[in-house]
Design goal:
By secondary structure, this protein is an alpha/beta fold. Helix 3 runs parallel beside helix 4 and helix 5 crosses helix 6.
Length: 257
């Protein structure tokens, strides 16, 4: 029997029981954004959700519904990208986090699949930590959520992210798309971005297999590399979760090694 549940699928009495037994919640934070020809546009949210599942399988707890709407980053100029007003995003993030903590969650993991979420998280989490000093709140991407404990690097739709996808949800990744010519309309109505606003490390050539990528060629990605990085982050976060749990409440039986 799984030691974790999806928050939205439980009845009120089931939630009350789950939180009393193991007060851990994971919130996957994503975005809808162009991720090259080989990755789904919801990559960031899918990545965050699947990572939270891996972490929850180790430590138990509740997974909240994925947060899809946000913004930040340079891919707003690409078709099939949906950036939102960050004021609204911040309000949802802060209000929901406070509600979750008020309901009895003692460990809150905010895992973002989109790197520009970091500034928003920093703004929201600092007052949360101040107002809820008896809780453990960890927030960020795989690069930052382990705090000083990690030296990982990220990219956009390139080797690192694609390796995560090959590890977490390989059925949604199609590397063969990187070797095909495309004849679809690749830009929104306003057309491609002018050169003066193009990010120097992003590929804006739709005839290139690396279109929309930023980083090392996605064709060098492997599930093995993804697994190595993911397992590292899971273990480091598990250590923090278990240490806090042991010092504050005994739920050691919820861990699955």
């Amino acid at each position: 029997m799984e030691n974790w549940k999806y928050y939205e699928e439980l009845k009120p009495d089931e939630l009350e029981e789950a939180i009393s037994k193991n007060p851990i919640a994971y919130w996957p934070l994503g975005l809808i954004e162009h991720h090259g020809w080989h990755l789904p546009i919801g990559f960031d949210g899918i990545k965050a959700k699947e990572f939270c599942k891996r972490l929850a399988k180790k430590n138990g707890g509740l997974i909240l519904p994925t947060m899809w709407w946000g913004g930040g980053g340079g891919h707003d100029v690409f078709k099939w990208t949906h950036y939102q007003d960050l004021t609204a995003t911040k309000n949802i993030l802060e209000t929901t986090s406070r509600q979750i903590l008020d309901y009895g969650i003692k460990i809150l993991i905010l895992f973002a699949g989109h790197y520009p979420w970091q500034k928003l998280l920093d703004d929201v989490v600092a007052p949360l930590k101040h107002d809820y000093p008896q809780t453990l709140i960890l927030a960020g991407t795989e690069i930052s959520i382990c705090e000083y404990d990690s030296e990982l690097t990220g990219d956009h739709a390139a080797k690192e992210e694609t390796s995560w996808g090959l590890s977490l949800f390989p059925n949604r990744i199609d590397l063969s798309q990187l070797n095909r010519k495309t004849n679809i309309n690749v830009w929104p109505p306003q057309g491609p971005p002018t050169r003066d606003i193009q990010h120097p490390k992003v590929n804006y050539d739709p005839t290139s297999p690396l279109f929309a990528q930023m980083g090392e060629d996605a064709r060098s990605a492997t599930a093995e590399h993804g697994n190595k990085v993911i397992n590292l982050v899971v273990e480091k976060l598990t250590q923090k979760i278990q240490l806090f749990s042991q010092n504050n409440f005994d739920h050691s039986n919820n861990r699955t090694d």
